[in-house]
Amino acid sequence: MASRMDPLSLEVVELIGTVVGRYYEEYERAAAEHSLTGAQARVLGLLSLEPMPMRRIAQKLKCEPSNVTGIVDRLEARGLVERRPDPADRRVKLAAPTPDGLTTATALRDSLNFAREPLAELSADERRVLRDLLRRMLGS
After folding, report:
1. C-beta neighbour count of 58 within 10 angstroms
2. Rg, C-alpha atoms of the chain
3. How far apart are CA 80 and CA 74, in angstroms?
4. Residues in contact with 33: Cβ distance below 8 Å, sequence separation at least 6, in sequence order
5. Exposed, middle or buried: residue 94 (CB in 10 Å: 0-12, 13-18, 19+)?
6. The HTH marR-type domain covers which part of the protein (predicted)?
């Protein structure tokens, strides 16, 4: 029999949900300013860190590879992403940002103030504690 969540845990879960909701709202708004969908912006953001195959993008975003292919197709049509052979395995194609894609990803990242502003109010020690608690919650 499942027990009811205690009031403190319930409040924490609700606060996490509020934070996530606000983050996604701002992310969608920032993406729209660059004429991107939120999904396109997330893929571009991932690729700005390192080129990767569609399968890995799908794993990171927890979606179907066919969805990622469509997103990459649209980003490629806009000149933000290109496909190139993987130097480690020429049979595999990597999606990689173009110079315009990197510029757009940086502008997107710089325009996200929701997390930056509240986190700036926390000391470095408080941010480390928060990071460590979130990692622990995620099992990493």
Report:
1. 19
2. 18
3. 9
4. 111
5. buried
6. 1-139
When pLDDT is averaged across residues 10-19 and rounded to a whole number, the result is 90
Contact 47, 97 (CB under 8 A): yes
Confirm if 52 and 46 have CB atoms less than 8 A apart: yes
pLDDT at 1: 46
pLDDT of amino acid 113: 76
0.85 exceeded by the pTM? no
Dist CA 34 CA 109 (whole Å): 12
CATH of domain 39-82+91-107: 1.10.10.10
Q: Coil, strand or helix: which one is 86?
A: strand
Higher-pLDDT residue of 43 and 113 is 43
